[in-house]
Amino acid sequence: MATLVEITDPADPRLADYRDLRDVSLRKHVEAEHGLFLAEGEKVVRRAVAAGFTPRSFLMAPRWLDGLSPELGASDAPCYVMPEALIESVTGFHVHRGALASLERLPLPPVARVLAGARSVLVLEEIVDHTNVGAIFRSGAALGFDAVLLAPRCADPLYRRSIKVSMGAVFTTPWTRLPSWPDALPSLSAEGFTTVALTLAPDAVPIEDAVDGLDKVALVLGSEGHGLSPRWEQSADRRAIIPMAAGIDSLNVAAATAVACYVTARR
Predict the structure, then answer these.
(1) Residue 200 CB contacts under 8 Å (≥ 6 apart), including other chains
(2) Same domain, 212 and 131
(3) pTM for this one?
(4) What angle do CA 78, 16, 13 make, to 5 degrees?
(5) 120 with 144: CB under 8 angstroms?
């Protein structure tokens, strides 16, 4: 059972995992160095623990202890208890969902394991906004997608903001990073997936037509700014577009993913 530890000093060194969470560069350094990630909110913490991630510690206000009592009871990690105002002085923001947990990362699985048994996959290239990554995971999970593959420069799905926006879908959806970016799409084609790139390319067809009748589909999505790289756009098996009303040429990548996932799920 977790040991409850009351802390009154925001500078207590035991709170190092939680300090100054608004500083993205600091978080990336700390999380990479120590192999940790942070979950915020009762539901998200519960889903992280249920997915098999080992807590390093918990941080919460007294009124949230009962809600996570099963998780605290099953863990030997310390639970640091502080008034909410002091928690905010540690983290740098208002923890409005009441609880935080620092958890140990698991090794990323190989691509073959992530794709085993999958029929619908999302493939992300250089999507660098953590909110977009979290929203994409949530849409994919909600619409029955089996896995997510990320190019090396995509934002971290286990960054706090990504986890929060995904509502824990990053814990339940198998995902990993692609070891070889240049040949990623031909490799998926060789595994029996039809790669469908969302793009404004001149030969793009409506998404409904691009996925119609396909068995195994990999939807390929590019960065928030310039979209897919020319290499990925051209190496995809098919190019697809979401038809728009006059005067609008595209959607935010997270919104486009939701639409494309819905259409693909109904193929």
Answers:
(1) 227, 241, 249, 250
(2) yes
(3) 0.88
(4) 80
(5) yes
